[in-house]
Amino acid sequence: MSGSTFGKIFRITTWGESHGRGVGVVVDGVPAGFPIVPDEIQKELNRRKPGQSRMSTSRAEKDSVEILSGIFNGITTGTPISMLVWNQDADSSSYEYMKNTPRPGHADYPYQAKYGIRDYRGGGRSSARETVSRVAAGAIAKKLLLRYDIEIVAHVIELGGIRAKAMDFDEIVENLEKTPVRCADIDAADRMQAAVDSARKEGDSIGGVVEVIARGVPPGIGEPVFDKLDADIAKAMMSIGAVKGVEFGAGFECSRMKGSQMNDAISLRDENVFMETNNAGGIIGGISTGMPITCKMAVKPTPSISKEQKTVDMESMKNTGISIKGRHDPTIPPRLVPVAESMMALVLVDHMMQNGSISSVSLLKK
Amino acid sequence: MSGSTFGKIFRITTWGESHGRGVGVVVDGVPAGFPIVPDEIQKELNRRKPGQSRMSTSRAEKDSVEILSGIFNGITTGTPISMLVWNQDADSSSYEYMKNTPRPGHADYPYQAKYGIRDYRGGGRSSARETVSRVAAGAIAKKLLLRYDIEIVAHVIELGGIRAKAMDFDEIVENLEKTPVRCADIDAADRMQAAVDSARKEGDSIGGVVEVIARGVPPGIGEPVFDKLDADIAKAMMSIGAVKGVEFGAGFECSRMKGSQMNDAISLRDENVFMETNNAGGIIGGISTGMPITCKMAVKPTPSISKEQKTVDMESMKNTGISIKGRHDPTIPPRLVPVAESMMALVLVDHMMQNGSISSVSLLKK
Amino acid sequence: MSGSTFGKIFRITTWGESHGRGVGVVVDGVPAGFPIVPDEIQKELNRRKPGQSRMSTSRAEKDSVEILSGIFNGITTGTPISMLVWNQDADSSSYEYMKNTPRPGHADYPYQAKYGIRDYRGGGRSSARETVSRVAAGAIAKKLLLRYDIEIVAHVIELGGIRAKAMDFDEIVENLEKTPVRCADIDAADRMQAAVDSARKEGDSIGGVVEVIARGVPPGIGEPVFDKLDADIAKAMMSIGAVKGVEFGAGFECSRMKGSQMNDAISLRDENVFMETNNAGGIIGGISTGMPITCKMAVKPTPSISKEQKTVDMESMKNTGISIKGRHDPTIPPRLVPVAESMMALVLVDHMMQNGSISSVSLLKK
Amino acid sequence: MSGSTFGKIFRITTWGESHGRGVGVVVDGVPAGFPIVPDEIQKELNRRKPGQSRMSTSRAEKDSVEILSGIFNGITTGTPISMLVWNQDADSSSYEYMKNTPRPGHADYPYQAKYGIRDYRGGGRSSARETVSRVAAGAIAKKLLLRYDIEIVAHVIELGGIRAKAMDFDEIVENLEKTPVRCADIDAADRMQAAVDSARKEGDSIGGVVEVIARGVPPGIGEPVFDKLDADIAKAMMSIGAVKGVEFGAGFECSRMKGSQMNDAISLRDENVFMETNNAGGIIGGISTGMPITCKMAVKPTPSISKEQKTVDMESMKNTGISIKGRHDPTIPPRLVPVAESMMALVLVDHMMQNGSISSVSLLKK
What we know:
Chains A, B, C, D: It holds the Pfam family Chorismate_synt. The structure is a homotetramer. Chain A has about 375 residues and is an alpha+beta fold. The first copy, chain A, has one domain: Chorismate synthase, AroC fold, CATH 3.60.150.10. Chain A has eight helices and 18 strands. Chain A has helices at about 40-50, 110-115, 130-145, 170-175, 185-200, 230-240, 260, 335-355; strands at about 5, 10-15, 20-30, 65, 70, 75, 80-85, 150-160, 160-165, 210-215, 245-250, 265-270, 270-275, 285, 285-290, 295-300, 310-315, 320. Chain A is globular. Chains A and B meet through strand 1, helix 2, helix 6, strand 11 and helix 7 of A and strand 1, helix 2, helix 6, strand 11 and helix 7 of B. Strand 11 of chain A pairs antiparallel with strand 11 of chain B.
C-alpha cells in the first residue's frame, strides 16, 4: 500500500486528498548546494493550476506553495525538501450525492473495493489534484537537468481526433503556452479548442494525446534489464491518472513496419555518432542513445460528464443513474502537460543519480 | 546499475548473457508449501525455445532447467528458488565481425556508450535469451495464480499489418498453440505466416502486436499513486526487449472517444457489480476493477536483418555498412507470448502479496 | 541521499530541521478502516517533548501535531497520513557562533564534509528534533500492534553507570513514567537523577542504556537472510542519534557463555512450545520465536556540553576551542524511550505486513 | 519473504541450502571495466572454508567457485555476476533424527513456525554455509574498495572470555592468519585455542567478539536519517547468523562515560581535520568522519553441542532431549572473520555508489 513514493535515489513521496487539508510532497535526494526559490516552484504550479482558461474547471485554487524544509539561505542542504499547498475553495457538499454511487470511469468503485472506505469528496486521493505534488517536485528536477543541458517539453499533439502537424523542439517550446489547449500548432489548436467547446455544450468530454520530449540526454542512461529507462518512463506516465497508453518513437506504428524501415541508421556527424532517424525514440535496450527521448501518451476523455450514466447504488445494491455535477475540465491533456514534463524529469534525474552521472552529494563540489 | 531485480515482495533477480556459461534466475518470496516440479518450468521454457518452427531461429538450445534451491521433496520451503539453464550450441565466432560495428536497432551502441565495454557475442545481456529467466520465474507465478483462479493468456493479435478478429478468452486459450505465429484466429494466422515467410525471403523482418489478458483478478489489486497496477504492468512489458508501446483497454483509441463512449457503465449481474464494457481494460485509478485486465504491446520488427544497413566502425570512426549474419527470428511476437504472460503473472503475484491477498508465508496454513 | 524513508510496506518518510519551519512525517501503508484521533498521536509526542522535567532542555515546544491527510471522519482511508509539527521558540541566533566550528561529538563536521553546506542552527537535520516524526508515526504503529495483542515498552536500565534491577514487563509499564529518568526501578531512578544533576553542575553529561521489549509477537516474523527481524531492528535503533550499540537477549554477554548456557531449552507449557530462558532475545535465525523480543541500546552522553572542548575553525583552518551554549539535555536516554518504542513498532508492523500477518488492505475486512 | 537481497545500487542476491545442490550469489551493480579472476574469489572462499584447522568442522568442502556471467575476457561488463559453489560431501542422513526435534539455539523452530515446512538437513537455508555467497560477493567489493585506498580487516578480539590486547591496523593484518583462531595477539591466541580445545572435549562450545575495521573511508559517506552508515553496517552484521550484538567505537562503554570523555576532540594534522580519539568509531550522525570505522560484534557460542539438551518432539508434542551429532565448529568467530569483512565491504561500496563516490558506470572512464 506504500505506493506514494517514486524513485530510488532521487525520491519523492506525495500525500493529500482533493478536499482534505492540502496536498504536498517530500523530495529526498536533491543534491546539496543547489539554489531554489519558491517562485521557481510556483511558476510550474501555476501552469497546472485550474481556472486559467475555458479549457479547465472554474475551481479557483491559489495553490501557493510553501517550502518547509531542506533549503537554507536559498540553497539546498541535501536534506528532504517538504513542500505543501493548502486546499482552498473546496466545495465538498457537492459530492455527498455520490457517496454510494461510484462514478463510471472513476476510481470510486475500485477504491471502495480495495479499502472498504473512501474519501469520496472530489475523488479524494485519486483526484487530479494529486498532481500538484508531482509538478512541485518536477520543478526541482527540471531545473537540475538544465545544469546538464537537458531540456524537457510536453505538448498536446492530438485532441478530439484533431492532430497537430509535426514541429521541432524549439517551435514547440515557443508556441506551447500561446494556446489554452497547449498545442504548438496554432491552427490545429484553434480547431481543438472548438472541439472542446462543443463537447462541453453536449455535457460530454474528449480525449487526446500528449507528447513529452527530452533533449540533450547523453547516451548511456538507463539500467538493464528491468529498470530500463523506457520501462521506468512508461511506469511514470502510466501512473498519471487518465493515461491509458504509452509509446516511444514510432511506438505502435512499428508493428506495421519492416526492420529495414524501423532500424535507425547509425552514422557520423562532426565525428559524433548519431542516428539518422529516431524511430527508437532515443532509447534502445533500455538505455539512452543520445537522440531525443520522445514519448507519447494516450489520455482518456474526462470521466466526469453531466450526461446521465448508468451506475449502482452500493447501499441499496440497485441499478441507478448518475449525472456528474460540479466543476470539471471538458478535457485533460492541456493540464497534463506540466505533469508529463515533471514525471520525465523525475525519472531522468533518478537514473542519472543511479549511475553517478549526477552525484547525490554537493553540487558545490561539481 | 542494479536493474536485474524485479518485484517488491515476490522478487526475481536474473543473470546471464547469450553466449556466456548460461542464464538463470533467483525467485525470492515464493510462499512455502507450494508443490513445484521441474517439468512445470520446462513446459513453459519449451514454449519460448527457439527452433520450434520456421517462425524462429534455427539455433537449437536444449534449454533444460535445473532447480538448485528452495524446493525440498518437491515442495517450496519459502527460501529462494534458483534456476539455471546452461548455454549450448552458441556459435560465438559468427559475432566477431560486429565487435566494432554496432548493429542498427540493437543495444550495441548504447551499451558501449554506457559501459565502455560489452559482450558483443549474440547481444550479450541484451539478447532475447535473457527471457529464459523471465519465463522460468513466470511459470511459478502463473501456477501460483491458478490457486486463486486467475488465468493469464497472451496471443498475437497483429503481425505485419494483418489483424486477428476479436475472440473470447477460452477460444484464445484453445487455439493459441495451434499456429506457429500464436494467433488464435486461424485464418489470420495463415496470412500472418505468409507475411513472415516473404519477409524472410527479402532478408527483412516484421513487427506486430501482442495482447495479454488476465482473467479472474479480484477488484482492489494495485497501489496508488505511483505503484498503480497498470503502471507496474506497463513497466514490466516495456522492460521486454523490442516492445515500443503499451496500452490498456481502449488504449490509444480512447484519445478519439467521448467520455460518454469511454466510460464503462457500472451495473449489477447476479447481485455482483460489473462493468457493461471494458474500455478501462480492468484497471481504473491504478486498481483492478474485477473485469479482465487487457494489455496490448507494440513489438518492433526483429532488428537483425541480412539487408545491408548503415553503421559506424567505432574503432576507425568511419561510416560503414553491416549485414547481419547468423540465425535470427524474422519476427518476435510469437516467441514473446510466454514472456508477456510471465511478466503479467509476476506483477500480479507481487501486488497480491503486497496487499496480503497472497500471504508470503506458508500456503500450508491457507 | 534518499535516506529519510524507512520501511518496505509500512513506510514512513520524514522531513524537517531543528530550526526550520517545522518537522513532519508521511506514513504510507496504514491499513484502511483504522480509527485514529490526533490526541493519540499528541499523547506520544508529549512523552518525548522537552521541557518536562529537569532531565531535559528548557526549550518549550508546544509540539502540537496536525494531521493533514489520510484520515476521513476519524478513520484511515489507506492513503498516506501526513503529519506536521510547526517549530516554535527556536532561538537560532544562539547558534551563529558555531557556524564555522564543528562541535565535537556532533554531526557538524561529517555533514559539512558530505554536503559542503549545512543548516547549523540547532544541528539542523541531525538534531534530536527529528525524532518528533518517528514518534508521531510510531504512535500509529503501536496502536495497530495492540490490535494483534502486541505490546511494546522501553525503559532506562542504566544511567551514568547506575544499573536498574531486573523487573518484569508489567512492573516496567506501571513504573515507567513515575520518574523523570524513565527507570522503572524507583530506587535506582533516584540515584540516576542525582548523577544527572551533578553532571549538569559540572557542565558535563552522561550516557546510559535503554531497553525496549516487545511482548506478544507471534513466532515466525522476520525474513531470512538479510532482512532478519533483529537485523532490521538493529538498523532501526542504530538510526537513532546517540545510539552506539545494539544487542539482543544476552547480547555481548553471550561471548563469554558456553553453548550449554546460551542455548534456550525448548519445552512445552499448556501444549504450547516455549523457551525456558530467553538468551536469544526472542529472535533466532532472524525470525521471532514467540518469546518477548528484548533489545538493549547503548546511548552516548549528550555531546553538547558547556565544558571547553577542542575544535577547528573551518574558515581560518586553525585549532580553536568551543563551549556549547544554549539549552541541552544533560542526558539522552529518558527522552529516547518513546523513540525506541516507536522504531520497534515500525519494524514489527512492516514485517507483519511483508508476510501478510497484517493485511495492508482494509481492517474493516478483518 | 524476499529477504535474500542486500544493497540498493551495489546489490547482492543469495540462494542455496546447506545440503541442496549448491549455494550461490548474483552480484548486480558492479562497475564495468573492472578486472576479476576466479582465483581472487577463491582465495577469500578458502579463508572461510571449513576443515582448515582443529578450530573448525571436519566437513571437507572443495568450495570451488564458478563464475557464470558478468565477466568477459576477464573484465566486468556491468551486468550481473552470478557465482556458484556446488555442495559436496554433504552427509544428509545424519540429520534425519532431528526432523521433528528443533535444536535449541538453532533456527529450526522459528523456521518451522514461519513456513510450516523446512529443509532440516544441516540447517538448510539458515546454515552457516549460506555465508559462502556473502564472501564471494565480498571479495569483489573488497577489491573494488582497494581502488579507492580503502582497506578492511576483521579479527577475533575475544574468545571464551580471553581478550586480545589492542593492536594497530598493520599488526592485525600481518598476524591475522598466523593463528587458527584469527587473533592478531599471538599470546592471547594460544590461550584462546586452549579454551576451544577444552570446550570441544566437554562437548560444549564458546563464543567471542569479532572486530572489523575499515581504514581509508573518506569523510561524508552515509545517508541520514534512516540509511545511516552505522545503521546499515549494524543491519549487515546482525544479519550474520550467531551475531547477537553490534557496537561502534566505544560502543556500550559510552554509556558509562561523560560527554567530556566521549567526545572526540577535533584538531588539525598537516592542515587536515582529524579527531584526536575515535570513540565515535569513525561515524557521527550516520556519516563517516574520515577516521577508521571500528565495529565490534558479539558472537554466540556454536549452538550445536553434543551435550544433551531439552527440546520438544513436534510430532508427538512431548518433551524430549537431543544431543547434536555430526561435525561442528566448537566456536564461530574465527570463521566469521572473512564474512564480517565482506559485509563491511558490501555496505561501503553500496553507500559510495549511492552518493556517486563510486560511479556505477565504467571504471574505464574513471
